[in-house]
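## Example pair
The file below holds two records. Each record gives the amino-acid sequence first, followed by its structure token line.
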Amino acid sequence: MVWQDGWAVRLIIMEEMHQYMKTKMPFDGFFLKNLDEQNGTCKYEEYLRNCKENPLTEEERREWTESTHAAIAELERLNAEPKPTRQAAEPEAEADGTSSPQTPEPAEPQGGCCTGQEAEEAPEVEVTAAEKTFVPQGEGALLLPAKPTVIPEVVSEPKRTRITELVKEDYKNWRDGTRIVFDAGVNSGKTYFILNVLLPWAYQKHWKIIYLCNRVPLRNEIQQEVERLGRTEEKVGRWDHDLKQIVYETRVTNKYKDTLRVETYQWMESFCKGNPKEVMNYFKRFNYIVADEYHYLLTDAAINKYIDLSYVTLNELTKYRPVIFMSATAHPFFHRWRDETNEALPENYYHIPSDYSYVERAVFYWTDAEEIKIIRQEARRGKVLVFVDRMSRIRKLVKELEDEFTGEIATACSPYRPEAREFDGLEEVLQDGKLRKRITIVTTVFYNGVNIKDPELICIISRLWDPIVNAQILGRKRPVSKQDTCAVYFKGYSSDRIKQEREHIRKRQLEPAKKWKDGKSDPEVWQEYLHKPGVVKMLDKYSQTVNRDEYGNGWGWRRRAEHQYLVQMDALKLMMEKGYQWGMLYAVTERDALLSKIEPLRFKELEDYIEKNLGKPILGEIMRKELVERGCITNPNDRHKDKSEPSLKIVNRYLIYYGVEARSDEKRINAKQKATFWTLYRL
């Protein structure tokens, strides 16, 4: 057993090295000195003292050198010999009742910090899993491979480009009045650049940075990372009157505490409302302004009537300071600045597409029953994250699932809504980047500023049709390794539903905004519009682009809300022209990164049924019922509460995705009766 002998030699060398390191270290203790600097220990000083007190004799030095060279030569010989096959190794192992020692498995790569800092990782090497033999399990028992792990020659994958690599030294030349854009996907190193490159540079120059983001949890994460990066310890001495001597204590400080301030856009909006005259003077105190998650000005415009304050303030600040705009999904803003207005010069525009390699498949479903079945199916394998469009859907899903998944369901919505009290808080949903429950059901409050680094999250489900929102949803999962993948399910929408959505936006959002703007030059236009039957009621109930003022008297136009709906209209137009699936996914990625991953919806329960009953004639009514239940098969366009049974033709429209079809045949069951039987056949 050459391989086993090789391990024995390795163990001998390790033991001899251990003994030798007690007295002498290689390179005069150079590595030990480095370890002391990293760990704050004093092993190097102990080593020097030991060397002085117990020096090796000339004979001991010669014996060590000779034994080491012999062992290394033996290792080289063993490594050069061909490895034994499993068949050759097994008899010998069985003869003496031993198993081959296990090759150590490669350690799982560690995820980055919880701040959204996208640290650059070393390329991963795939290792084939070793075949395992059975050994008795118990205390001290090991499951060992029958042959050593084979590490194949792997061609290195192209390294992902990071923002730091694109920017290089450009940041040293950014001047006042510059608009810098990071139009880059998740895990592209946007936050990493700010905290690990720009922040030390500003600290060195005694400059200041203000960092704006869209959610309190994200602000807290970034602040924690700043504290970690800037943590310093110093020994401070004080005179102890009792001991009659100086006592040294460790004082922890943050060297960056005066260099970077982290706040939210909502904080800035409150500042603008409370003291508008002082806003510009305050922000001019900072040398850099960072506007992270800038898509907030689009995605939240319909629910936050003060967003225009953020937009106007930041736009004005670009005249006086370098403002860094960062987002993975703010393309409507960024492309306009670059292509239409030239506000973002090419040399200050840094673009990296989003990486969706971790998405193993993209699947569309169409009914609520399918959604329930998907959740049940995927939750039996791992964790599931579900995004819904309204809180009533959260309640309905919980009611449907709570019997099977008691104590394994978490829910969350905006903490500012009155209904939030009946749902979980963020800390009850997410802890240290990991979902705390098997099923997590949330509204869109969760799609921003939350980074999930949880390999157990294997499925993301979205009921939302907005591509910008769905891009943010996909970005919540931050894979920790190449093997950390997930499936994504999107709610499908018919062409009728898309037309309906476009009409609602036109009538409830864009038409009021146009009438209000026309009324600025001709007041009669606006007054005439207001006096139409049902208009005021519609504005109060639905409109986000035109709202009453704070006192309820006049009406005001919200520029950013209108912009949001114009972007949505463009997306809906693309879906109508190209089809919902193509249009939505293309708008999410701005390329075809997910289109190739579309797979038809299949349920394992139905797959198992097909496999079990393939070729077996079964009474048609029985098979119809069993297929319908297991595959959520329904009649299209059947909106009745009591839906009619789908025909054989409709059933086969579903079965085609399973590679089978059902055929009907009339058979005699006795001398007087015939019955219709269905049989499943492979296509």
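Second record, same layout:
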Amino acid sequence: MAVSKDVVDKIESLREQIRHHNYLYHVLDAPEIPDIEYDRLVRTLEALENEHPELVTPDSPTQRVGARPVETFGTVEHRLPMLSLGNAFSEDEVRDFHRRVVGRLELSDEGGQLAYAAEPKLDGAAVSLLYVNGVLQLGATRGDGRRGEDITHNVRTIDAVPLKLIGDDYPETLEVRGEVFMPKAGFEAYNERARETGEKTFVNPRNAAAGSLRQLDPKLTAERPLDIYVYSVGVVEGREIPDSHNEVLDQLQAWGLKTCPERSVGKGFDGCLAYYEELGARRESVSYEIDGVVYKVDSRAEQRELGFVSRAPRWALAHKFPAQEEMTVLKGVEFQVGRTGALTPVARLEPIFVGGVTVSNATLHNMDEVNRKDVRIGDTVIVRRAGDVIPEVVSVIKSRRPKGVRKVKLPARCPVCDSAVVREEGEAVARCTGGLYCSAQRVEALKHFVSRRAMDIDGLGAKLIEQLVNTDRIKTPADIYSLAKEEVASLERMGEKSAQNLVAAIEQSKETTLARFLYSLGIREVGEATAAGVAAHFGGLNGIIGATEEELEMVPDVGPVVAARIRAFFDEEHNRQVIARLKKAGVHWKETAPQPAPKDGPLADKVFVLTGTLASMTRDEAKDRIQALGGKVTGSVSKKTDFVIYGEKAGSKLKKAQDLDVETLDEGQFEALLSEL
């Protein structure tokens, strides 16, 4: 039986009214009707949709919590990467950022009138929302910046996230980025209810937001008091948007998306600092957690001109608030062994509440730091959460030093495997020599091997790896690929389905890239970028294995130290055996033609070292210019070095260059050299 046009019109009218009032309430904070009237509208719509279920649409306001629980999160590829921001912890670092921006834009007034959009740096979880023809299609976490998790079913439960945009002038495709957070009041209220019912409480609002978005059941997420502020756009298709970043946010708000009310636009460096100081002074009174402010060049045209470096835009900066500090007593020091054998002294503290969490452990970094700070067991120390994340011992209050304190001593033997501990000349870090014999290194190496940016074996987490190692089921990465489903299913907290999923993930990981594989091996000082550079340069694994240190040094970013690390890794027979076993198990990648660094150009065969702080460009930018002209940039000075380029606060590399009679150029001389080519 056909539904009358009056009913269809009535339903659509109710939806538009509810969307309008949602916008007034959640986005503008300006409701115009009492809650009871809003409830009447919702109940009327629900009644009509119950009578006519064929008219229910996904963007209806009644469908916020309509999805069934999911078994796992799908993976989402971001069409445009969700990049992180560079951090600044001082005025000088902000001034340097501003100076770089001004220099690249070639502004004549020292950037005094350059407009910066400024807003609080929210302490929550970054998400991406995709709207197609105005309807919410996808919500995803930031993940590693290129791939995140599909959390559509959860973001739909957040009242401030419109299921359908307002108006009719929005783009056909609109991706927005924002931060999901839990307001302070909501966080306290939720924890109070949890304590009353005996449920687990959250440590801080950031963890609360991230944990809520990763609930498999959207009904649980809907119970959490989550909010969102959008702060940028990603993919935009089918409509032009304003050139001003701040005006883009105004437009997003007009389409029904919530933006931060604290955002502002200031002029130049002084405008940025004024905003930072003003917001910092009332940080505690803001209704949500913030850990700094974010500056963005307001002109999107200038943003495009400035571009990006590595994982961050050149036109944006996060200026962190001073880390929160507290005093406590150092009860003892233990040494942890990392995946590369590095021994890290860890302070065991009298528990203290710092920056929203209870801290009982803090890093002491290395023995040089321990000695420099003169840290002793029994001391009263200042603990700081650096960047509001990593607890560290900042200093000792020596006026409170009691009698009987004990010095911290580096152990002569590994605390895990009893192998000898060595400290190489010129290194601050001491290392266990146990290699694959050290179970601590084995566990950490396997964790690294399976991690998201390495072999990306979903479901093989830290606790499961520890089980597999502790039961002698796996000793090397190659053993992972011989695990049987029945063997996995027999482990603690593993069922048939989980075992099946893990075995499938292991099988899927066999198809990878050379860069990922190289990174997964955990070679000291070979990170993602270096692994990618080495893979591209040689094209295949055999070329890397057979390369001399000199040949490895021809790769951009690879200096003598890194080249020696790579060479030493492949010189070890057991490492080559593991690789052979991995390939035999089916791990493979597409090999490509070698892409060596350019040998032509006016700087061909010239070796440069950069040191100190350059005023008109970053060292990465200077490096790019050298390499574009055929030159090579290394990290250490030797007799093979042709030029050392130095800026402010140049250190030992400049002195070594002078000792070795290597030609040195200041920034002006360097610019003159480039201009002559």
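Notes on the second record: The mean pLDDT is 87. The radius of gyration is 28 Å.
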